[in-house]
Specification:
The complex is a heterodimer of chains A (236) and B (101).
Chain A (H helix, E strand, L loop, with lengths): L7 E5 L4 H12 L3 E6 L10 E5 L5 H15 L4 E4 L14 H29 L2 E8 L10 H21 L4 E8 L12 H9 L9 H12 L10 E3 L5
Parallel strand pairs in A: 1-2, 1-4, 2-3, 4-5, 5-6, 6-7
Chain B lengths: L3 H19 L22 H19 L8 H5 L8 H16 L1
Classes of the chains: A alpha/beta (236), B mainly alpha (101).
The complex binds NADP nicotinamide-adenine-dinucleotide phosphate.
């Protein structure tokens, strides 16, 4: 592939966890990968560029997308993976914590979609995957606000699909089952076991599972797959 | 800072590009008073969305400035800052000025 043919993929929250795995996965596949997080990234690949960006910061997101466009002239794929979770009983959830989850998970996702889509629409091609979770459809006690924010992501994505479809941009959501990252390290083991036991496929999720679904959604042949949500483990 | 003439030029060029993209012929005469929003508009509402994005992208390419033209202030004004080519150009100048301050 010549540099001008190499697709450009932006994955948010690429410092660690699933986002980091996906960044490395798509580097191996030959993409230029642009990543972001609030902390510093340490992926050393020359085809990787890290942006020190909080996705909830409108100006910073705009600057990041402008910088990518300046260097590459295109954005082919966006994986909106960055999110925060604060697992708490609703009676013990401060407004500040709830607002921050909504700001990062919903507004942050919206901002990255908005600015990236402006670049995608000029080439009439784009693939957007927004990250949700199975805890929304299974209505897991203890994660009400986090789950609500991820339900919002699904609805947002379904409508986005209709708003951007005419420009060849597909928008889908992906909901993982529990995966052992820092995000769920504080969740008691018996609670994780109970969730896994309720699945059709009774095992933890893996970053490879996430890459598999993203591969499908972002494939050029998936141009008629949009507004969908795929959950792992049999959850619908 | 963006000069009024540059802003006007970018809005006009973007308008031509949007007409090309949506595949409808541009009206014979386009200029300062060409109406973009509301009654007698030359574009439908989706065309206006496309035009705003096109102007933002061109400003970035030609002037290296990243502006969000549909900002809170713009969207809450009683009179749309996108209503004519001329008014749109004014809005570009004002938004750039505000962003620089
Ligand atoms: N792990 C699971 O069990 C699970 C299950 C279902 C769905 N998911 C979803 O999968 C995605 C990834 O989760 P994960 O488990 O990999 O989480 P994680 O290990 O906590 O990693 C989150 C990543 O997002 C970044 N991030 C957080 N807030 C950010 C912000 N405001 N702006 C930019 N980057 C930000 C973090 O970096 P910084 O801290 O440096 O910003 C980090 O790189 C999330 O959308 C999550 O909801 C996870």
């Amino acid at each position: 592939m010549t540099p001008s043919e190499r697709p450009v993929l932006l994955v948010t929250g690429s410092r660690k966890g699933i986002g980091r795995y996906l960044a490395e996965h798509y580097l191996k596949k030959g993409y230029f990968v642009e990543g972001c997080s609030r902390g510093d990234g340490d992926i050393g690949d020359p085809s990787y560029h890290h942006h020190h960006v909080d996705v909830a910061d409108e100006k910073a997101v705009r600057g990041m997308v402008a910088d990518i466009t300046k260097r590459h002239g295109r954005i082919d794929v966006v994986l909106n993976n960055a999110a925060i979770a604060s697992m708490n009983h609703v009676l013990l959830t401060p407004a500040k914590s709830a607002n921050r989850m909504l700001e990062v998970n919903v507004t942050g996702t919206m901002l990255v979609c908005r600015d990236a889509a402006k670049v995608m629409m000029r080439r009439r091609y784009g693939r957007i995957v927004n990250f949700t979770t199975i805890v929304a459809p299974i209505a897991l006690a203890g994660e009400a606000v986090y789950a609500a924010s991820k339900s919002a992501v699904v609805t947002f994505t379904r409508i986005l699909a209709f708003e951007l479809g005419q420009w060849g941009i597909t928008c889908n959501s992906f909901g993982a089952t529990p995966i052992m990252t820092d995000m769920i390290r504080g969740v008691p083991q018996d609670k994780i076991d109970a969730v896994v036991n309720g699945l059709a496929i009774k095992r933890l999720g893996t970053p490879e599972d996430c890459a598999n679904v993203c591969d499908f959604f972002i494939h050029p042949a998936s141009d008629n797959i949009t507004g969908q949500v795929i959950y792992l483990g049999g959850v619908t | 800072m963006i000069a009024r003439t540059d802003a006007y030029d970018i809005v006009l060029k973007s308008l031509t590009e949007v007409f090309a993209q949506i595949g409808t012929p541009a009206p014979d005469k386009v200029g300062e008073d060409t109406v973009l929003v509301g009654n007698d508009a030359v574009l439908d509402s989706l065309g206006v969305v496309q035009l705003i994005v096109e102007v933002e992208q061109r400003l970035e390419e030609t002037h290296g400035v990243s502006l969000t033209l549909a900002n809170d202030k713009a969207m809450s004004q009683r009179n749309s800052p996108f209503r004519t080519v001329g008014v749109f150009a004014e809005h570009v100048v004002a938004t750039a000025l505000e962003a620089a301050s």
